[in-house]
Amino acid sequence: KAHEGIIMQVDWSAVNNQIISGGEDRKYKVWDSYGRLLYSSQPHHYPIMSCSWAPNGQLFAIGAFNTLRLCDKSGWCHSLDKPNTGSIYSIKWSRDSTQVAGGCGNGHVIFAGVVNFTLEWKNFVVTIIEDRCI
Hints:
Elements: E1 7-12, E2 19-23, E3 28-31, E4 37-40, E5 50-53, E6 59-64, E7 67-72, E8 77-81, E9 88-93, E10 99-104, E11 109-113, E12 117-121, E13 124-128
Antiparallel strand pairs: 1-2, 2-3, 3-4, 5-6, 6-7, 7-8, 9-10, 10-11, 12-13
């Protein structure tokens, strides 16, 4: 059994071939493409309402009541924000995996940027040090 209770959201990364799920049991989980559990979070305060992989497959975002969490593909949490938004029902990433938008229960859309994140391409390595600045 994947979760105790309803599974609220699932997302599959085409890049790393891993799956994340979030449920009414207040946990998010990371799976491989064969359905083997790779990581299970501790229960949060509220059900996990949304989860979404970044297009590059390195990070994913988790949404719950007044909670936006940014994690790496191993499940480790890098950032926790507590916006006063109600539940975050939908999360979408920018194409370059540096920004997140979330649809919230209070009727607002929230935006977040990924900072202190390193990108590598061929012989180049850059670090995002603030919003839209490398």
